[in-house]
Write a structure and sequence with these properties.
alpha/beta, Rossmann fold, seven-stranded mixed β-sheet, four-stranded mixed β-sheet, globular
């Protein structure tokens, strides 16, 4: 929980980082205002009003709610999902694609084959819009990720689009796709991005032969303990770079030895 006294400092830092990233003054002012609103809770937490800005050479559309604005900040302002080492980015698979912002970031930075997995229809619709309006072709898979194909219960948080997660008591039933099925037609994956709000636990505790196709993984351990899960991934031939080891906000990262 961020102390109220830290909010002005964090907003000021965010503005400083956003200024060189946004492509015009209007985009900077709009995003800057939304950053303040999201931290100050000054708008309805489930607002579906759309905002559009130009940042990093791309056009982003997001909802006026904390989850979407947080995603803009993390992906496009702070560049949290930038790999900490120089790797090819031809084929990228995005688990937990949300509204497509990370997929789009990888497209702008050279990815040519993109596959996104996201279980919520509203997020998929906005992801499709973000990709189309930037001329990016990607395959959108409307499902949760899991160790086996099937269905599961899912909870969607109306305040935070980024906090939906698999939950036995969830209000939604969604399809589940396994990694073996998802990657069946791919010879290799240059980068696997994982932000699945806890689904990584079951995923990496299960059978991992599909990892033979993967060159690198960038992951946010949401509910999984990296002390348990990282060794399981390392055992498949990966070198582990823990969160914050490359720069202040670098993600947990695994790359083939």
């Amino acid at each position: 929980m961020i102390a109220p006294a830290q909010v002005p400092r964090n907003v000021a830092r965010e503005w400083r980082m956003a200024w060189p990233q946004t492509n015009d003054t209007r985009s900077f002012l709009r995003y800057g205002a939304d950053a303040v609103l999201s931290r100050g809770l000054l708008f309805a937490p489930a607002s579906h009003r759309l905002r559009t800005i130009r940042i990093g050479g791309a056009t982003l559309t997001y909802r006026l709610q904390r989850g979407d604005i947080q995603a803009v900040r993390e992906v496009w302002v702070e560049e949290t999902y930038r790999p900490p080492v120089d790797i090819p980015l031809d084929t990228v698979v995005d688990l937990g694609a949300n509204i497509g912002l990370t997929t789009l970031w990888y497209a702008v930075h050279g990815a040519s084959r993109l596959r996104c997995v996201e279980p919520l229809q509203a997020n998929i619709a906005l992801a499709r819009r973000n990709l189309i309006q930037n001329g990016v072709s990607a395959e959108l898979v409307e499902a949760a990720i899991g160790p086996a194909d099937g269905t599961t219960r899912f909870h969607a948080d109306p305040r935070y689009s980024t906090r939906g997660h698999v939950d036995e008591a969830g209000e939604l039933e969604v399809p589940v796709v396994s990694m073996s099925t998802l990657l069946a037609d791919l010879d290799k994956v240059d980068l696997l991005k994982v932000d699945t709000e806890g689904a990584e636990v079951a995923l990496f505790r299960a059978e991992l032969s599909w990892l033979a196709k993967v060159n690198a993984i960038i992951i946010e351990f949401d509910r999984g303990d990296p002390r348990e899960l990282a060794p399981l991934i390392e055992a498949q031939g990966f070198r582990y770079m823990p969160v914050g080891s490359a720069w202040w906000n670098s993600m947990d990262f695994f790359v083939r030895e």
